[in-house]
Amino acid sequence: MERRGNRFVRYADDCVILFKSKRSAMRVKETVTRYLEEKLFVKVNQEKTKVAYITDIKFLGFGFYIEKSGNVRITVHKKSKEKMKKRIKEITKRNRPISSKELAKELKEYITGWVNYYRIANMSKHLREIDSWMRRRIRMIYWKRWKLVRTRYRNLQKLGINKSKAWEWANTRKSYWHIANSFILKRTLTNEVLKIYGFISALDYYNSINL
């Protein structure tokens, strides 16, 4: 393939070969399959071996997209993004018997590991959305843990809310998830405060390793 100028990438037994036309791809697929099975005695999984448009490919968790200029760029595949969100949701379950410090540590370990793996992908927009959603879940956890009215009242005051407003919100009957997106928690448990508490920003970390 190298002698013919075909572009390809391989990792273990996974391989992607790129072509300019579907016809060329179909022809080489048959040739490579025949060579692997008849010469090297390697069984080819026909279900996973297919010809597809580059934006439909998932390779090692990565995906691809085409810019308006026509250039192909690497991104994180949709399924990998969904898996990440599912894992963060598991870590940030509001009823987990875990301290805030342990929660921050667990999130940091998962996010840094995930971002390091996918660091070559363009994913700023995705991480910005994840940060916003994740912070809301963290605020929800804090609000639930401030379960008693007096605890909420006291903590809101500590974070700069005046007595009347703190008392009003401490007595709210709105859901945890609703309050987590309210101005009162965004004003008190700000992004900077959460950072002080040890909670990492996925986007900030991504930018720091891609300077």
UniProtKB/TrEMBL annotation:
Full protein name: Group II intron, maturase-specific domain protein
Record InterPro entries: DNA/RNA_pol_sf, GrpII_Intron_Splice-Mob/Def, Mat_intron_G2, RT_dom
Pfam family, one: GIIM
Residue ranges constituting the Reverse transcriptase domain according to the UniProt record: 1-64
Species per Swiss-Prot/TrEMBL record: Thomasclavelia spiroformis DSM 1552
Highest taxon listed in the record's lineage: Bacteria
PROSITE patterns associated with the record: RT_POL
Phylogenetic placement of the source organism: Bacteria, Bacillati, Bacillota, Erysipelotrichia, Erysipelotrichales
